[in-house]
């Protein structure tokens, strides 16, 4: 990712892509036609723990913004790290009409920490089996936050 | 004519052109008989003009969307985008630049709104994220972060002052309590002193009174001891006289 650019995408409330900017098209390696209508997890990298997406969706469903470090996968299998900020969008009547995701270049020191954390979380998910995966890896994250004495948001923005 | 949309104007011209082509075909056939070559050329011209009409309709289509979006921007709404346009033609480039502009405007205003909401909730860690924003959008957010920092340190200072004044309040409250209990103690002491004085006065009275008694006692004990020594000497005398 470049310092002076960010990836912008929009989805409908079900997570289907309705807009991607040219940076998104460039980094994802897909054409605009391929991206539009596709589920946003089209760019999900298998190294990402499920618990992170659960946290992200839970937070934005409750009407709040959510920050998350995300390892995305391009069409050719290469990856790129982003600091995603997802916020709900509302129409004039206050109805939720979708989400805006702005993905920025993360700081290298953040990637170092988060990469290690996600590896541990992913290992815990694999060990716990599909049913208990999210609980097991969420616990690793909450334990880390408790040890540091910070909220999730403070942790993400602390780098 | 000037009140019509570009699309309608083009349609009028193109329809006129098509009509003339069609008339040309008919005239050609009627006057000179059917010949393949001019007929094919004229038919191809007609098809091309018809296709042009369809294509320009498609090329102009994003203009309506752009107009709607520009109107939304003037109303302070930034969520519209134009999708499915070519990135190479003039209108397509205009659309993508409009999208880029909205991609700056929308995150800018969301950042401002979110970090202010957090700040007013007392969460000062949610600084705005200038990364990826350009020019004045970026400097504006950077300046805002400086202000947020100042607000955070003001808040810390305020909290400190509040704490100090609370401690002072506690101190002066206990000072008042102390004063009250000192006053109480003093009243108590005064009361006690009164009792002491009373006691002293009474003792003094008793003492004056008792000094007479004491004289009697002394007198009596003197008499008693004199009598005893007289008796002793009398006994000694009687023993020494055979």
Give keywords.
heterodimer, A: alpha+beta, 5 helices, 5 strands, globular, B: mainly alpha
Task: Please provide the ordered H/E string of secondary-structure elements of chain A.
Answer: EEHHHEEEHH
Structural class of chain B: mainly alpha
What is the percentage of strand-forming residues of chain B?
Answer: under 5%
- Number of helix segments of chain B? 4
| Element-level helix/strand string of chain B | HHHH
Helix/strand-derived class of chain A? alpha+beta
Q: If you average the pLDDT of chain B, what whole number results?
A: 85
Largest sheet of chain B: none
Give your account of this protein's structure.
The complex is a heterodimer of chains A (159) and B (242). With 159 residues, chain A is α+β, with helices and mostly antiparallel strands. Chain A is 43% helix and 24% strand. Chain A has helices at residues 22-28, 32-35, 50-61, 108-148, 152-156; strands at 7-11, 17-20, 66-73, 79-90, 96-104. In chain A, strand 3 (66-73) and strand 4 (79-90) form a beta hairpin. In chain A, helix 3 packs across helix 4. Chain A is globular and about 40 Å long. Chain B has helices at 6-32, 36-74, 90-120, 135-240. The mean pLDDT of chain B is 85. With 242 residues, chain B is mainly α. Chain B contains 4 helices and no strands. Chain B is rod-shaped. The interface between A and B is medium-sized, with 27 and 23 residues.
